Amino acid sequence: MDYGASSPCLASAKSHGASSAPCKHQMLEEKKLVPYLPSSKNQAQNVMKLLEGRRGRLADLGAGDGRLVFAASSAGFQCTGFEINSILVAYARSKAHWRGIPSSQASFVKKDFWKTDLSSYNNVTAFLAPGVMELLGEKLLKELPQDALVISCRFPFPNWPQKSAVGSGLDQTFAYEISSVRSHLRYPTKDGDEMSQMLR
What we know:
- With 200 residues, the protein is an alpha/beta fold.
- The chain is 39% helix and 16% strand.
- It has helices at residues 8-16, 21-31, 41-50, 67-74, 86-99, 133-143, 178-185, 193-199, and strands spanning 57-61, 78-83, 106-110, 123-126, 149-153, 164-166, 173-177.
- It has a 7-stranded mixed β-sheet.
- Helix 5 links the parallel strand 2 (78-83) and strand 3.
- The longest helix has 14 residues, at 86-99.
- It is globular.
- The termini are far apart.
């Protein structure tokens, strides 16, 4: 979805021949917006295959109606679904209540994950859009613990080495180990160990 073409901020910038800092910030925020598209049954199954052998806390970024959260919580993960659409949040919460799933196992928050520190999660799933994957990658590299696993549905992270991939076409799902990605990109680890080694 292209938000820039109809942006009043962009039109104003063009008419004045320059863009202000607030205008650039607004355009960046618009770029992060992603239309709702639910995961298919095959995608959910592919995610669970890539999560085999994993445990701990899981963040689903753009949780929608909660189907990935429900699948992961049933496998023993402590899940948080981040979603800014209040209708979808209410629907997912109602579904969790109807299924008798406690909030300690699956919770849904109306919260912008872009503005949330994700460092307490060692598993992250995302089904977003190609235009935000690079920005998301920068955020996850900065915040996630070294043992974190990131799973992306349909759209891979540019320049990230894949641990594995499952499925094909629109249902293809990719897994990435943050430690391997940081090593490949020579990105400093959170505790600075890699940076200190590079400076020796």
